[in-house]
């Protein structure tokens, strides 16, 4: 039987205590000053604490104590400011105070307590704005989504706060690839709020989903599952959404569509919505564009043709060329040298990053709905993306200090 401490406003504490006992839990109502209670929690033997989400009930000290003692924390929020307080502290197990008992019980019994691993801490106002990386590639599924997810996972694993946004207006597929629900597309919701000037960090956290991983969790703004919703992703809205993301997280990784056709040339109506506006705006706003091609003869020729169009939209110095699915079976012996030579000869592109083909690893990731890092951490494509992120995206490490820095052992995950 689970032993649960209750630290809630009256009479909510009594209502929840009755529900707990009725459903086979042992509930104890805690009273007194929060600081003294926090001291006692570490040795209390409680499995979980259900507390109010407001400042009087929930503090960072309390979360820290509970995290290190393996006590799960669930907060009941009565209003938006309480919800915001809990989100600021990095607590996701927050439920409406009026929620029926089965919903609270579901949170109590679901999986282990969430790890707050540092990369979901809110940004400090005044910090440099976050960086934006757009992942683009021509038609033919060269691996834009695969690369965008893998880059987000690597950045999160380095302890950064990361949001992965799906701005593909033709075939958004981040949500199905990561096994997330996409009934309420987060990116479209963000664009709608940005359009009305009400997209805040709190709103971004409310509408995004969280991909949980022991290696580093990240936010996901899911894409439009149904392509006919593309008019919701207008250029101005996408630009405003990206600006809000810069204030929200350290890195925003955007999965874009393939098509760079500028609809201005097709329609003379200045105010008509434009299908490729989301992709083109994301590319223009991004600090870096990862341009992905497929490492086979057809993929390379598609890439080289579309690369010319890409350079009409953004400067070459912001583009990092990545050729994915490198394998000899489709291009002959020494595929890396063949690809490099083709790019140099026909596109004047030097030093592309090459990502090996590994069908088994990618299939396993899709089957599990997890990132490559979580499923096949030692696979060749995952190692190559790790190197790409370290050498092209993350800032170069400062020279090693003379004295050995103190290191801290990572705490094991609390048992459920
Ligand atoms: N390095 C790789 N090795 C093997 N398969 C890959 C690799 N990269 C991508 N794939 C596979 O290619 C398919 C298309 O990838 P995806 O990222 O969805 O393409 P895009 O977003 O460009 O349309 C997916 O089934 C994916 O698993
Ligand atoms: Mg895709």
Count of beta strands: 13
Which structural class should the secondary elements be placed in?
alpha/beta
The CATH fourth-level homologous superfamily of the largest domain: P-loop containing nucleotide triphosphate hydrolases
Tell me which CATH architecture of the largest domain applies here.
3-Layer(aba) Sandwich
Q: How far apart lie the N and C ends?
A: 13 Å
Low-confidence stretches: 112-117, 403-409
The succession of helices and strands, N to C, reads EHEHEHEHEHEHEHHHEEHEHEHEHHEHHH
- Assign the CATH topology of the largest domain: Rossmann fold
Number of domains: 2
Question: What's the total helix number?
Answer: 17
Beta-strand residue percentage: 15-25%
Biggest sheet: strands side by side, in what order?
8-9-7-10-6-11-12-13
How would the global form be characterised? elongated
- Give the integer mean of the pLDDT values: 86
- Which ligands does the model contain, each kind named once? adenosine-5'-diphosphate, magnesium ion
């Amino acid at each position: 039987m689970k032993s649960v401490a209750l630290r809630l406003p009256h009479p909510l504490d009594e209502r929840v205590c009755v529900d707990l006992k009725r459903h086979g839990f042992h509930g104890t109502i805690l009273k007194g000053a929060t600081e003294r209670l926090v001291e006692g929690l570490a040795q209390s033997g409680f499995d979980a604490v259900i507390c109010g989400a407001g400042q009087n009930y929930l503090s960072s000290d309390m979360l820290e104590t509970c995290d290190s003692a393996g006590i799960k924390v669930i907060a009941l929020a009565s209003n938006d400011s309480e919800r915001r307080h809990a989100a600021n502290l990095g607590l996701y197990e927050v439920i409406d105070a009026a929620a029926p008992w089965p919903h609270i019980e579901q949170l109590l019994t679901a999986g282990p307590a969430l790890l707050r691993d540092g990369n979901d801490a809110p940004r400090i106002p005044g910090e440099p704005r976050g960086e934006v990386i757009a992942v683009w590639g021509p038609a033919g599924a060269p691996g834009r989504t695969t690369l965008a997810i893998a880059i987000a996972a690597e950045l999160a694993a380095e302890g950064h706060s990361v949001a992965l946004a799906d701005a593909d207006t033709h075939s958004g597929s981040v949500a199905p690839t990561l096994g997330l629900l996409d009934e309420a597309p987060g990116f479209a919701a963000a664009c709608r709020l940005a359009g009305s000037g009400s997209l805040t960090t709190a709103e971004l956290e409310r509408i995004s989903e969280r991909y949980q991983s022991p290696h580093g969790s990240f936010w996901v703004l899911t894409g439009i599952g149904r392509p006919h919703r593309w008019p919701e992703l207008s250029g101005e809205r996408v630009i405003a959404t990206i600006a809000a993301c810069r204030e929200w997280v350290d890195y925003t990784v955007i999965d874009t569509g393939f098509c760079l056709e500028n609809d201005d040339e097709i329609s003379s109506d200045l105010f008509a919505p434009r299908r490729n506006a989301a992709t083109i705006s994301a590319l223009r706003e991004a600090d870096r564009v990862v341009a992905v091609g497929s490492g086979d003869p057809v993929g390379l020729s598609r890439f080289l043709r579309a690369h010319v169009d890409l350079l009409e939209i953004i400067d070459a110095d912001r583009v990092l060329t990545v050729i994915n699915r490198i394998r000899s079976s489709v291009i002959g012996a020494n595929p890396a040298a063949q690809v490099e030579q083709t790019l140099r000869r026909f596109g004047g592109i030097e030093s592309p990053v090459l990502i090996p083909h590994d069908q088994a690893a990618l299939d396993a990731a899709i089957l599990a709905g997890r990132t490559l890092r979580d499923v096949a951490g030692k696979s060749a494509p995952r190692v190559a993306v790790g190197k790409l992120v370290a050498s092209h995206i993350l800032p170069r490490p400062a020279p090693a200090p003379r004295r050995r820095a103190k290191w801290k052992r990572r705490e094991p995950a609390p048992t459920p």
